[in-house]
Amino acid sequence: MEKRISGHTGLMALFGTPVGHSGSPAMYNFSFQHDDLDYAYLAFDVDVDGMEEAFKAIRLLNMRGGNFTMPCKNIAAQLVDKLSPAAQIIGACNVFVNENGILTGHITDGVGFVKNLELNGVTVTDKKIVILGAGGAATAIQVQCALDGAKEIAIFNKMDEFYPRAEETVAKLAKHCPDCTVTVDDLDNAAKLAAAIAEADILINATIMGMKPYEDVTLVDKSLFRKDLVVTDTVYNPKETRMILEAKEAGCQVVGGVGMLEQQGVVNYELFVGKELPLAEFQAFQV
Ligand code: NAD
What pTM was computed for the model? Predict the structure, then answer.
């Protein structure tokens, strides 16, 4: 450590609460050392109320960049100087980059999702997409897919507290991405969901269903899978959800949630230091 940290070392950090479980410090510090970059990455437990002070510290200490996690992503979007197009539409950011004192907020969940699809040979441009969910991950994916030229996005969500957020997304995307047709319907409308999936190129689960402790749950009846449907899940624990396993069995191309998580790290690192994250080396180091 005495060889790594000097009087010149630049600081990056994660802000939010809780942050103690985060894997980000290990991943970024490994990468800085691997790439011989003079930065250190820490995690600071800060609640929404502390974010104004945190931003004073970011500016005072001239931090190069960092991340925001729950529950600080929305307040952070109000405290940065500029926002990426997706962060502007969503009103939240999970990354900041400091360029000569100007802090720009980005949201990279959706970018990571789309990049991971691309690595699996799937593009969203001109595609018809059905997405289940209207929470944080779902909204970021919906906005990014629309920005990246998707033709249609059919959102399905339970009539719960997240449903109005999907309605807001429909309104925002009608304004910002008028070439993409975005709709929202009740997830319990089985006939409408089946009809939308029958027309779709890509099906995405971005709800908490399928994730532990709901690993026995799938929101899509396996009779709806067909070979030319790409089935993707944001859930990464378990690595293969029941939906993914059933889609695989039906001969669909499947893409799980682990790659989305990894690609977010790749996108963030590129924003921080302009280099490709040494992901394979970090994974080998962890074993
Ligand atoms: P969130 O709390 O913001 O949203 C929860 C969503 O689940 C809402 O759409 C809600 O309506 C839906 N939901 C809750 N109970 C349901 C039920 N009984 N039936 C149907 N839908 C139900 O959560 P989030 O942060 O957006 O996370 C959603 C999923 O995305 C999680 O599984 C999470 O693991 C995953 N995720 C993955 C990554 C990644 O990098 N792979 C990143 C972020 C989130």
Answer: 0.94
